[in-house]
Amino acid sequence: MPFGTSTGWAKWAFVIMCIAPILFIVGFATNYWMQNDSTTVTSVGLWKAQTCTSGTCDTQSVPSSYKNDNFRATQAFEVMALIMFLVTPVFLGIYVFAAGARTYNYAVFCMVMCFLTAALLFTGSVLWIFALLTNFSIAWSYGLTLVALILAIIAGILFVPEVQNFNYFYGHYEDEYDSYYEKKSRISPGNYTKNYSPRQPRYARNIDSPPSTSSTSSSGRTVSTSMSNSTTYDSMPQPMAVDNPNTLKVNNVSNLQSSRPTFNDVSAIKLQRDQVF
């Protein structure tokens, strides 16, 4: 799929949250939330009511006799759901298109926005059932909002694996990340040694970026420079442990177990090759 390095979960959630508002707005604005199919066909929406007699239809504001407490509560929740449907795709779009925005906290925020949108719409849908008047039945405008509700829930569910498994440091899933560095290691064996945590990968001993060496300036300060090439790096001698008088001795022989070993005439520059990252 397009949209750069964002995951398939995020891409599908973004697409779904672009479709859901369209369905919701159509249902929100039309006059077919409930309908009475008697001699005079009366269709009632959230804001307008339509009466049709012998093929002639008249649209007017919803009569005050229809507006009970549940009706007004439904209007309030549907308006809040509309606002959420307008802003949530924007936040998801930022997450998908902007690599710098793909952080753990922002992914959680996008997931919460999807579920909050669904919760507001679900509450309004339930209240409308109680607002339904006698001899009226549910109509297709209400059905469109239910489809939008289902899509919002699906978008939130798609963000669950996004939050659980996504590696936000490099913008890849762990399996994609492993596959990438396995390919790199086959191209240049030994140059890529993985040593990473799930949230912040790190790498050790990459010859493409030679480790620095240390030297002492005339002022007594330690100055770091880079080794010239990998040959110099590999030619450094291994450190050699020698007897330490402070260690525990058995039969006058040190076992080197009770303190750190010392090294015989090995400078800090040579120890650089065995630095642990």
Describe this structure in words.
- The chain is α+β, with helices and mostly antiparallel strands and 277 residues long.
- It has three domains: 8-167, Up-down Bundle (Butyryl-CoA Dehydrogenase, subunit A, domain 3); 172-204, no CATH class; 212-274, no CATH class.
- The chain contains seven helices and 15 strands.
- The protein has helices at 8-29, 69-97, 104-131, 140-165, 174-187, 230-234, 268-271; strands spanning 34-37, 41-44, 48-53, 56-61, 137-138, 166-167, 172-173, 193-194, 203-204, 212-216, 222-226, 241-242, 249-250, 253-254, 262-263.
- The strands form six sheets. Strands 4-3-2-1-5 form a five-stranded antiparallel β-sheet. Strands 6-7 form a two-stranded antiparallel sheet. Strands 8-9 form a two-stranded antiparallel sheet.
- Residues 171-181, 186-210 and 258-263 have low confidence and may be disordered.
* Count, helices: 7
Count of extended strands? 15
Strand order, largest beta sheet: 4-3-2-1-5
Averaging pLDDT over every residue, what do you get?
Answer: 75
The biggest sheet amounts to: 5 strands, antiparallel
What fold name goes in the CATH topology slot of the largest domain? Butyryl-CoA Dehydrogenase, subunit A, domain 3
Q: In the CATH hierarchy, what is the class of the largest domain?
A: Mainly Alpha
Q: Architecture of the largest domain, according to CATH?
A: Up-down Bundle
Q: Distance between the terminal alpha carbons, to the nearest Å?
A: 37 Å
Structural class by sheet pairing and helices: alpha+beta
SSE run: HEEEEHHEHEEHEEEEHEEEEH
Strand content: 15-25%
How many distinct folded domains? Answer: 3
pLDDT under 50 segments (min length 5)? 171-181, 186-210, 258-263
Q: Helicity range of the residues?
A: 40-55%
Shape: elongated
Radius of gyration: 34 Å
Membrane topology: Multi-pass membrane protein
Keywords: Membrane, Transmembrane, Transmembrane helix
Transmembrane segments: 12-34, 79-99, 106-133, 139-160
Biased composition (Polar residues): 244-260
